[in-house]
Amino acid sequence: MHAKQGATLYRSAWQTTILLITVLWLTGCGVNNIPTYDEQVKSAWSQVENQYQRRADLVPNLVETVKGFARQERETLTAVVEARAKATSIQVDESILNDPERLQQFQQAQGELSSALSRLMAVSERYPELKSNQNFLALQSQLEGTENRIAVARRDFITAVERYNTEIRTFPGRIWHSLLYSDMELRETFEASSPDAEQAPQVEF
């Protein structure tokens, strides 16, 4: 009787040991890499959203300040307002990461706002009083800083997507993807629309 109990305990301990070894082996082989990298993509995307929203929030004050010194630049001011409206009309939650078409539309809308802001900055060169206005100078600093943060956030997002996609397509991640995470698809990323698209726009006054 005691011998049978001892054998049962031994077998149970052995099975537990094998289970622990298996868990440690799976962990060491990167079984958790795919969901971990996917969360990093989502986190990086939230920073992209935050920085674009920060820029959108600066636009109304910027437009009003320029308008006070350069009302005749109505066409340029209108273009900025319309570009902002278009950029902020696109819903940008996590679901956009699973919709390549929406992501492309979002990227295009933000690009149009960048272009409109660049034209507005060029117009400001013709108004010395505007360029020396303290409110305008403060907005200049905030916009320039935001453009730099946008560039960093986009770069970090692109890097996170690349890491996630590479994990899914290479060994051993490809195996774990087929066995455990087949519902998790490759992620879309930003595409450079010009040779220097990864650089922050120059905001000069």
Short description:
The chain has helices at residues 2-28, 33-69, 74-89, 100-124, 128-131, 134-169, 173-179. The chain is an all-alpha fold and 205 residues long.
Please tell me about this protein's structure.
With 205 residues, this protein is an all-alpha fold. Helix content is 74%, strand content 0%. It is built from seven helices and no strands. It has helices spanning 2-28, 33-69, 74-89, 100-124, 128-131, 134-169, 173-179. The longest helix is centred in the first third of the chain and has 37 residues, at 33-69. Keywords: Membrane, Transmembrane, Transmembrane helix. It is found in: Membrane. It comes from Litchfieldella rifensis.
| Helix/strand class | mainly alpha
Number of helices: 7
Shape: elongated
Percent strand equals: under 5%
| Mean pLDDT rating | 84
Helical content, roughly? over 70%
* Rg, Cα atoms, Å: 26 Å
Biggest sheet character: none
How far apart, in Å, are the first and last alpha carbons?
A: 91 Å
List low-confidence stretches.
193-205
Q: What oligomeric state do the depicted chains represent?
A: single chain
- What is the element string, with H for helices and E for strands? HHHHHHH
The total count of strands amounts to 0
